[in-house]
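User: Some background: our group keeps a shared notebook of sequences we're curious about, and every so often someone picks one and asks for a predicted structure to add to the entry. Today it's my turn. The entry only has the sequence so far, pasted here. Could you supply the structure so I can complete it?
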Amino acid sequence: MTLKRYFTSDQLTLTTRVLRCEPQDDGRFRLILSETLFHPQGGGQPSDRGTLAGAAMLQALQEGDDVAHYTDRPVEPGEVELVVDGELRELHSRYHSAGHLIAYAGESFGWRGYKANHRPGEGRIVFTALDQTQPVTAEALMQRAAALVAGNYPRVLGEEAGKRMVSWGELTPYACGGTHVLSTGEIGDIVIGKVKEKKGELTVQYSLSH
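Assistant: Of course. Here's the predicted structure to add to the notebook entry:
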């Protein structure tokens, strides 16, 4: 089982151990590490990238209890240094955190987010109706989300029933395994592109201004 250090750490470098390195049919190499800071693709968030002992770490995927790391060349088993691409991590964290704030904004209109894509350029939150819903517009959602960004609330990490919980300030915690900003002010301007209601679902497309 790969120990997921990114659950509790925002560090971008780590000394870890390569347990296995296996060549793949597509020319890449599959590495299993004892512990990792690389967030794997999943939960609507793209994979981190970076380097492992100088080799390009192209993609990380959750495979059973392990996080598999796919590199452009082989890495010998043993102690290695990994480095996460900080610029890409920051972008992914901002998009994922923005998705949470949009979900909070949607709840104030009687909608609960249950499915999301936080990939830059494809940001989307899908909501299901709660007991009573109110009309919601892109402008109204942007205003609610902007207020949460402006509040610059600090991130709060916790655990509940064995699940990692994420929130900011006094906001309701969500179970989430992704990476997130340290405070809501780091997200920047959230832009709601399209809001569509159909068959009891509300789909909200979003992006960040930079």
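Suggested note for the entry: The domain at 1-83 is CATH 2.40.30.130 (Elongation Factor Tu (Ef-tu); domain 3). Residues 65 and 188 are 35 Å apart (CA to CA).
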